[in-house]
Structure prediction request, 229 residues.
Amino acid sequence: MLIVVVRTLILYALVVLVLRLLGKRQIGQLQPFELVVVIMISELAAVPSEDVGIPLVSGIVPILVLLLAGATLSYFSLKSEKARAILCGTPTVLIDKGRIVERELERNRYNLSDLLEQLRLKNVPNVADVEYAILETNGEVSVIPKAEKRPSIPEDFQISPKDEGLPIPLVMDGKVHIENWNQAGVNAAWLEAEIKKHNLQGVEQVLLASIDASGTLFVQENRRKKILH
Prediction:
């Protein structure tokens, strides 16, 4: 039994490492050749972990070969537009200026119900309001509304809003992030005083405290800690 556990942990660690080396993309964002590599790796790892009669190296070597093959194809798709078109395909226009392109739906085996569902998910339920709908190579549908139907942006009103930046976390789940204090321009005394303004006794009662570029502090109480106390 111990041998099975050790073999499984080794293969698990190897698969995690291989997937990390292949890149940080979700399953829905993988190109076809990348998805094939992931599926085959999972199958190859499962066999030697279940059968101790199969040498461990018989599972490790094919996984490393698939890693090399996947990395090689990714390199070619990155460097060559022609290789990228062959390996990943090319985007397809499904809606052109408010008109559904039926031949492209048929060619890509993409039914009308799925297309309408994707439009609803993009908050553009009316086909007539769509300038272009493009089926991307990863299977996602990009929707570009017509100019008069798209949401307004500050540029439409000749407004230049200030850069809001990213909020800086100061306390997370009762633990202070001192490394962020210099960047935020705060200190312990200031933070303690601000937390007390929210009727909290200390950082241990804070779920999240963060400060934005304007200097506004957001504080949310950790109710679980309050109940325990």
The chain has three domains: 2-86, 92-145, 168-228. The first helix runs from residue 2 to 22.
